[in-house]
Amino acid sequence: MSILTILKKNIKWRFSHAFTIVITILQPILWLVLYGTVAQESMQLSGINNYTAFIFSGLIILVSFSTCGSSGIMNYMMKSNGSFYRILIAPIKRSSIILGQAFEAILCSFLEIFIMSMIGLLFSVNIFQNLTGLFIIILLVFLSAFFMSTIAYGISLILPNEMMYETLMNAIVLPIFFLSSALFPTKEISGILQIIVNLNPFTHVINSIRSIILTGTIQLNMLALTVTILILMCLVSFSFARYRLQKEMDM
Asked: N or C: which end of the chain has fewer CB within 10 A?
């Protein structure tokens, strides 16, 4: 059994529970279509001509976080039918189990982002206009999704039930999203809130994606720092997930 085998198994699970795809993409699409349109006129006073395009980068991160967060629920369902423990006793590396599940969440994130991007074209939001920029967006989304999926995996092995898991994941995802530049320009805020927003690494992920979508420009210095921070976060989150899986085997 390899990473690919785990990946195929998890993809099969995802499509047999298609509601997880619908739930995680529904809210971002509503934000894109409704909130972006309603707030368009008022945001023009801040110099934002296309508010839908402005919030699109933040919604990309929200989609990936929601999708990767839902992947942890898979472990609870697999435990209930016993398949989780059958995988644990199989001759497979612990890291392959985690990576197989993480890659499934990442692929699902890209699927949902692609769907949202097709809808975004109706609102003059085009992420496909610059191949270099598109590659950078893919890289940033991949690293962000990998971080969240491995964090979700580790947390799902700590908490006893889905309700507590979903509560904690919301307590993680929502502050990261709202305390960032996802919905408003950072120049509009000041004081302690500005410090918190600027310390949020996903503020810089969103800003990098936004710069590519709105102007087609790539801020290399900020991009290099952002990618470095994301890689370090991914290493920590993967180590956390692997530690929790090992603890699960020792119990």
From this structure: C
Residues 98 and 135: beta-carbon distance below 8 Å? no
Structural contact between residues 218 and 132, judged by C-beta atoms closer than 8 angstroms = yes
Smallest CA-to-CA distance from 138 within 202, 209, 203, 71 is with: 209
Global pTM reads 0.90
Q: Check residue 40 and give its pLDDT.
A: 66
Q: Which two tokens stand for residue 25?
A: 């993409």
The rounded distance, in Å, linking the Cα atoms of 140 and 146 is 10
- Give the integer Cα–Cα distance in Å for 197 and 220: 21
CA 176 to CA 248: how far, in whole Å? Answer: 28
C-beta separation of 157 from 248 below 8 A? yes
Q: Which of 52, 79, 18 is nearest to 183 (CA)?
A: 52
Report pLDDT digits (tens) over 29-67.
887 777 767 666 666 666 677 888 888 999 999 999 988
Say yes or no to pLDDT of 126 above 90: no
Cβ-in-10-Å burial (0-12, 13-18, 19+) of 21 comes to middle
